[in-house]
Amino acid sequence: MDQGKIISELSFKAVRSSGAGGQNVNKVSSKVVLSFDLLNSKVLSDDEKLLLEQNLEPRLTNDKILILNCDEDRSQLKNKEIVIKRFLQIINQNLIVPKERKATKVPKSVIKKRIQNKRNLSEKKQNRRKPDF
């Protein structure tokens, strides 16, 4: 996956940030909303799209669009950088295919050791009993 090409497919929108901040909030559109259309992406292969669609299902809209917001900073440019970094991190994390787990057999030595420990514990408890005359 080429990061430069995928960034070119992103669309950004600047909106007014909510919350405290005085009159600056009413004047400046510093919040950045990133949207990425997963189905119409030309950078990702079909397998990558399918994998992302499965992994990001709760975060996608009905039209398979990923939307991220950032209003951490007062600067629109910094918010844009933050949201791009977050987007790339999410994409890279969800493109990783987990390795399949191979079932392994329990070694005979482990089974032998467990049975021996049970035997030892049993003998210890039998020795604690009152003698039967």
UniProtKB/TrEMBL annotation:
Residue segments, region Disordered: 114-133
Segments of skewed composition (Basic and acidic residues): 120-133
Gene3D superfamilies assigned: 3.30.160.20
Enzyme Commission (EC) number: 3.1.1.29
Keywords recorded for this protein, A-Z: Hydrolase
Domain of life: Bacteria
EC class (word): hydrolase
A molecular function GO annotation: peptidyl-tRNA hydrolase activity
InterPro entries: Pep_chain_release_fac_I, Pep_chain_release_fac_I_sf
Prokaryotic-type class I peptide chain release factors domain mapped to chain residues: 16-32
Family (UniProt): Belongs to the prokaryotic/mitochondrial release factor family.
Name listed for the protein in its UniProt record: Alternative ribosome rescue aminoacyl-tRNA hydrolase ArfB
The species this protein was found in: Flavobacterium qiangtangense
